[in-house]
Amino acid sequence: MPERTVTTVDGRRLVLSNLDKVLWPRTGTTKAEALHYYARIAPVMLPHLRRRPASFLRFPDGVDGERFYIKQPPPGLPQWVPTVPVPSGAGARRHVSVDDLPSLMAMANLAALELHVPQWRDSTPEVHDRLVIDLDPGPGMDLVACCRVALLVRAALAEDGLVCWAKTSGAKGLHLYAPLADVPAARVTDYARALARRLEAGHGDLVVHRMAKALRPGKVFVDWSQNASAKTTAAPYTLRARGTPAVSAPVTWEEVASCTDPEQLAFDPDQVVARAERDGDVLGGLLNPALAARL
Where is the DNA ligase D polymerase domain (predicted)? Predict the structure, then answer.
């Protein structure tokens, strides 16, 4: 395969490079296969990325090589890729906003395998349109335990009038999302912290809300801090740079409730594409403004 391939993506000229480079040595998965995944999953992925300033993990030498965490547009990025100003100290810095397929492919071409986005859009970090709860299993716990806690979180949110959806982190945990009607960031963080404390108070044998690692063995950490404006979470459908290709994949509540083995909710890129083609976007309700809560 030539080192450089010129193509057109939705009318945008894009020079793809080193498509045969192996990015996942354990499976022999190449950069071309990563690009192919993003091209196929884009119809359901892009609505969750648009207007959100993205951050990326780049792996130019593959997942076993050095990684680079980037926020600003990297060298070599085409000028037509949209950016958005993000307040930073005394000024603002521009972040990539992955609003369309050409932009998604341009970043993937730079081996930006993982996409992470905040819970706010445009240049307004002080107002959030999503609540996220990150369930992280401590030592001795696993994804099955996270599923148990996810059901508790879902019930607690429902008591407060919020509806939520679930996806795997692409690693060991789960992410739960609830749509919000543009709520001040501080209020979202306060609510998420109070929710985590409430869950620990009622289920202290299973849940911990404090960040100290010494408290986590045998518990699931309900990480409320992901709602801080400065933080980002792995985007829905993003690849994860594990030993083998993994995806932060949406899952149904039926799958969460019936999970008895972590492997039941571990999906490779081809499986995620097949699920999306069969079921559509399982997280689609997250984008419905009629379901957004005001807290």
Answer: 30-282
Contacts of 278 (CB under 8 A, 6+ apart): none
Q: Which residues does 32 contact at the CB level (< 8 Å), separation at least 6?
A: 1, 19, 20
Greatest distance between any 2 Cα atoms in the chain: 60
Mean pLDDT score, 42-65: 96
Query: If you ran DSSP here, which 8-state letter would residue 95 be given?
Result: E
What is the chain's Cα-based Rg?
Answer: 19
User: Is residue 101 classed exposed, middle or buried when 0-12, 13-18 and 19+ CB atoms within 10 A define those classes?
Assistant: middle
pLDDT, tens digit (0-9, with 9 covering 90-100), for 135-188: 999 999 999 999 999 999 999 999 999 999 999 999 999 999 999 999 999 999
Where residue 26 falls among pLDDT bands split at 50, 70, 90?
A: very high
Look at strands 239-240 and 246-247 and give their pairing.
antiparallel
pLDDT at 52 over 60: yes
